[in-house]
Prior knowledge:
Shape: globular
Largest sheet: 7 strands, mixed
Strand content: 15-25%
Number of helices: 10
Strand order of the largest sheet: 10-7-4-9-2-1-11
Number of strands: 11
CATH topology of the largest domain: Jelly Rolls
Distance between the termini: 23 Å
Helix content: 40-55%
Structural class: alpha+beta
CATH class of the largest domain: Mainly Beta
Oligomer: single chain
Amino acid sequence: MDVEHVVGAPHPRLRPFVTRYSGYRMRTEPGVHRGLPSRSLTLVVTMDGTVDLAHGRFATLCGGLHDEAVLITHDGFQHGVQCSLTPLGARAFFGLPAGELAGTAVGLDALDAPAGELRERLQEAATWTDRFACLDEVFGRLVRPVRQQVELAWAWQRIAEGAPVGEIAAEVGWSRQHLSARFAAEYGLTPKVMGRVMRFELANRMLRGQTRPTLTEVAAACGYTDQAHFNRDWRALCGATPTEWIATELPFVQGSEAGAVAEL
């Protein structure tokens, strides 16, 4: 296995819209990779090959929030950049709510983004630092004025803190049903499901850390009632148990065991 993975931060003025750049160049055994649910939309620009999903092959794409694993078939070589967009980034870059992309992925050209230019410039750039600077420049051109609704922004933050949906609804002065409908229209998932995804994301992040805790420790730290609850939720969102995912996916995701990992 030959894995190069470089992480970079966007320009400060872009961070309300995109939180992280991840450059990758990987030679592994051919197989299927699971794209896991998270609080971020995923924008990918390949520098070689395509991202092969069940509904098509994409040289560039943006995928919305989802509550189950996205299966990505690969031939063993993958090379490109993945960008983690916030839901507000969908409005800033593409002029639409994240909810319109929920559960699917579309080519960047379908979003009126300069897909060809972006891919060509990344291919021509000599270093990861240069590639991340290209992303900054292109995203900076795409940004349009956006206004975030206070109630929805508050609900998102409170869900991230683990607050119950009924409590959040009372805080914003809406019924639970109205909150769920408005939240799903904006983000694509209901508050309850988004809470599950955020808890899963935290557990996933803990398992990918340099010092890996036990599954029991992860379950307790992330607020699962017990190990069985943790396993059920993980299987529902990932399509595998935590143990199965660690065995088959963790080296691919983390990239630290057989290649270079850097942070810019």
